[in-house]
Amino acid sequence: MSGRWLRNSFIYLLILVAIVAIVFTLLPGGSSSQETTLTEFVSEAQSENVDRVDVNGTELTYWLKDDVNEQTFKSKMEEGDTARQVLQDAGIEPKDFPPIKIKEDSFWSNLPGMLIQFLPIIFIVAILFFFLRQAQGSSNQAMSFGKSKARMFSGTRSSVTFLDVAGVEEAKEELGEVVEFLKFPEKFAALGARIPKGVLLVGPPGTGKTLLSKAVAGEAGVPFFSISGSEFVEMFVGVGASRVRDLFEQAKRNSPCIVFIDEIDAVGRHRGAGLGGSHDEREQTLNQILVEMDGFDTSTNVIIVAATNRPDILDPALLRPGRFDRQVMLDSPDIKGRRAILDVHAKGKPLDTGVKTGVKLETIAKQTPGFSGADLANLVNEACILAARRGKKKVTMSEFDEAVDRVIAGPERKSRVISQREREIIAYHEAGHALVGQLLAKADPPYKISIVSRGMAGGFTRFLPEEDRHLYAKSQFQDMLAATLGGMVAEELVFGEGTTGPQDDLDRVTRLARQMVTQWGMSEHLGPRTFGRKEEMVFLGREISEQRNYSEKVAEKIDDEVRGIVDRAYETSRKVLTENRDKLENVVKVLLEEETIEGEALQAILNAQSGKESEELVKTEKSPKPSETADDSPEKPPVQPPKTEPGLAWETQSRLGPDQTS
Length: 662
What we know:
Largest sheet: 6 strands, mixed
Structural class: alpha/beta
Low-confidence stretches: 138-143, 274-278, 617-662
Helix content: 40-55%
CATH architecture of the largest domain: Up-down Bundle
Number of helices: 21
CATH class of the largest domain: Mainly Alpha
Radius of gyration: 43 Å
Number of domains: 4
Strand order of the largest sheet: 6-8-9-10-7-11
CATH topology of the largest domain: Methane Monooxygenase Hydroxylase, Chain G, domain 1
């Protein structure tokens, strides 16, 4: 880079000198000399009025005697004449000659003229040099087309360590051995041990795979090469394999080091089959990776770390021992991991520590099941942005609560125009979700309900599970289904008919009920077996296809079982709301006035005795903040759904809006 800059500077300097020379040559001089004829010079010499004469070629410069201003006069002689000859021809005796000084032309005085003469040649040479240099650069680019595009980061300047990574303690422990090997390789060599040559980080997007690999390089203090799997593949055959060879050569020259290949599934797909079919260039690149990894000498101290969220499509040869022989799973963090991640991202932030408005990270961790590390980092950043927008000096719990809602459902849409009737429908809908969830023993307790539109939702109800769960019973699913149908049942109970608002609720209820029958063996008539084989994108939660391995008669029974489960949940929800109609009216009355109810205020209304007026509840429970509700939960086992989108935590969100109601 510096050599190229020097060459460009030389060309620009040459052009600048040429321009300056031309300007100085063409512009008239700044002297005050007066031009005179040769006859006037001779006349002054005959009158012995010339003080001295300077001769420069054919140019005479002379000064007159008794001239106080010392005015300079210039005259021109003919070619071949000299000053002495001119004076002699004028009849002046040599003894009367004024002092004559002969000046010789210097190099610098002739330089402008020389530059003007050679300027066309200089200009042509500069143009030729420019085009030749461009052609040479293109040739170099063509020769470097097969070079690796990996970016190298010096290990001495890495600012990421294991202290910056939280919520993945098991993965950190696994990769700690890699760090120890890079620091003390002789410790393993003495025992005949061999460190894994490749470590494959597998997990959903946003769980910290790239961050963890950087932390390994930062802890070990070695160079870190980073490249994406897609950068190996080009339209020209053989380029990918050439780049792989160059990458591994660079790694060997800088060993010990770490080579990180992100999204390796772009180049490591199963050869000859699977998704995408056959691809000669990609397969050649993969073959070269396999050869380079298996051809490492045990003393090279180069470790390959790769990341993917599609391990199901990787070639088996890539995963065998000797290549990527260690797989580290990175899943979405549990409540303890989320708290640790929040501690990392909240470090250095001006958080409020007051009694009422103080930030309680434990509560935030409980509100965010399913959030990845990237989601939590975005959550903290959104809270800080909201505090800055509101002109606060510290970030309070209200900003974090608002940030959770923004990440899950989007920003508030207070400008959305909704009629009073639709507003009441939304209020009854969300109150139905909250009341059924509160009164059923095995459903999650509601934490916040709002009729303020966010994103595509007309309102939403957010539940707060007390802990992360991985095993679920049929009774838990039944209560969760009833709580999800609470909004639709409340609409029908109050207004006599439903609306288009529960569209998303019905979709989720149907999907969960079908999973109970076909995947988890929770059907009373079909028994403990599964139905159908599904192909899914691991960690991405997208179903590709389903292969039916059952008859049409069994399919009808499956439909009947799904309908029976949904009908029982519907009747449960209707029974709860009918028996607690007064509580439903209390919640709706407060919700229409406040638009949002959360925390202890919501719990007080839902747990109030029949007949207690909502105005009293608002007066007594309006002041507590949501940050004070973290440790006061209802006495019932909270649960969470088996498979949720990041951050939803089995949250019932209504899509009821002015354009969706009847």
